[in-house]
Amino acid sequence: MPAQGVPHLDEIRCMCGYLRLTLNFPISFESTIMQIIQSLHTAILITDLDRSDYFYTHILGLEKVERPLKYPGIWYQIGNYQLHLIVAPTVPTDKQQEKWGQNPHIAFAVMDLEIIKSELTAKNYPFQASASGRPAIFIQDPDQNIIELSQAFADKI
After folding, report:
1. Which of 59, 133, 155, 156 has the most CB atoms in a 10 Å sphere around its CB?
2. How many domains is the chain partitioned into structurally?
3. How confident is the model at residue 106 (pLDDT cuts 50, 70, 90)?
4. Is residue 96 part of a domain?
5. Are 126 and 116 in contact (CB under 8 A)?
6. Which InterPro entries does its entry note (predicted)?
7. Which strands form 36-46's sheet, in the order they lie side by side?
8. What is the CATH classification number for the domain harbouring 46?
């Protein structure tokens, strides 16, 4: 018998050359209240701002956009998506929770950030508010990948 909450294979059937898997979930899964509606940006760490700016601006032809944050970096607009370069002289990821936003991460727009924060708090799931003061939080997946959840605004949807 599999562990509680772990799906297990109930049957395998081969039908007309296709493999059919039937999974049995021993517990029910409730739908999530997180309504992720858009990927916002990818943040990557760089060591040399000028060298990276030259590459992304002159080699790839990306358009630089205004960046309201104080720590060193550059943002580029790619359609409705952004690439954020963050200067980190040593490049390793800083796992200090208050610095999650200055690490490589993916960002999603969400419908109601306050509901998500309440739900995470109720589940004792750690999150970090954005140090910039904007309506965003950072969480980690089980492999410590950092995920930003930002409040969607009507004019951006």
Report:
1. 156
2. 1
3. confident
4. yes
5. no
6. Glyas_Bleomycin-R_OHBP_Dase, Glyas_Fos-R_dOase_dom, Glyoxalase_1_CS, GlyoxalaseI/FosfomycinResist, VOC_core
7. 63-65, 73-78, 81-87, 36-46, 105-110, 146-151, 136-140, 128-129
8. 3.10.180.10
- Convert the pLDDT of each residue in 118-147 to its tens digit: 988 988 888 999 988 889 999 877 657 688
- Kindly state the greatest CA–CA separation across the chain: 60
What's the one-letter identity of residue 125? Y
Per-residue confidence (pLDDT) for residue 103, from 0 to 100 = 72
Segment 22-43, tens digit of pLDDT: 344 444 445 466 777 888 898 8
The CA angle 25-39-74, to the nearest 5 degrees, is 140
Say if strands 105-110 and 146-151 run parallel, antiparallel, or are unpaired: parallel
Residue 73 domain flag: yes
